[in-house]
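Format notes (please read before filing issues)

Several people have asked whether sequences and structure tokens are stored in separate files. They are not. Every record keeps both together, in the order shown below: the sequence lines, then the token lines. Line labels are part of the format and must not be stripped during preprocessing.
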Amino acid sequence: MDDISSSAFIPPTDFSAEWSNITPAHQHSHTLVYTATRYGRRYLLKAIAPKYASLTDHMMQQEQEFQVGVQLVHPNIAATYSLETVKGIGRCIVQEWIDGTTLGEWLQTTPTTYSRMRVLEQLMDALEYIHGLQLVHRDLKCDNILITRNGNNVKLIDFGLSATDATVSPVSNDQQMDIKALGHLMPLLHLPLYAAVGKRCRKGKYNNIAALRKAIALRQKLYNLFPLLISIVLFVIALSFFYFTVEKRNAEKRQWQEIYTTIETHIAQERELIVQLIEKQDELDKQNPNYLLEHAAIINGFTEMRKSRWAIRDSLMQRYAEDDPRRQTLWQLWVKREADLDNELYKQLLD
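Then the structure lines:
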């Protein structure tokens, strides 16, 4: 029974309730900041600088910061635990110690677009939460935004300038202060998709974080639809090109059919006239004194028909440029039809 299982919880060697390893971290105007250890965990201690520690207004400001911080319970806001006196330092606000870097330092590591979008989303979460409590941060900047080393999560800090409706005028606690400040941070996040939203944010066009979220969501939705819209546009262009190509081919086909019909119609009419001339020629009496005149009239009619045919041919040929292959095709078709007609009938007429 005296044996202890090897899987039992082993507490840290330094699990004392007393503060230890108190180390100065940095100083902000009238505030000294330390890191310290208690119960095996690190904390942040914010104390008033000794020369100001006895001043009532500084003590009241410290109490107000504690009262604001202790009511904030949000994963993207550094937690405030207590206000207590620490030996050698004085009265301190005990806060969550964040293992991370400031937003400005984090951005220098060239994080991914997804990580930067996630930081913006978490900042909006934190602001929406404190605004819901009728609070404003009033000092939103890179130095007051920490990014954890583990997970790249936002931790909003330093609510020393925050105020509630009960302590300040409606102007001084206007949510626009935080929203405009966020608008000035957005260009630093290098999110071109939201550039227009950030510009409107800086101009105070959004009354609250919900309106800002809606604008960002709309931009994201349009961005997500952009590939689909491009695909639709390309499809319409391709379909239009196909349609006009087919229509052009059909138009050319109809035009060619019209030309072919014109040729065939003229040849048929000419054939009929030649047959009539042949019949007249067969009826001529060579003993008739007017034979030569009548025969000459028939030959003249034949010549006029050929001239008419050539005029039609030239008219059709002019539809195409000299270097157009269709002109050559038309010429070959016409020559063939003329040869057929000459071989079939004109020899009979001229014999």
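For reference, the curators noted about this record: Residues 1-7, 163-172 have pLDDT under 50 and may be disordered. The radius of gyration is 48 Å.
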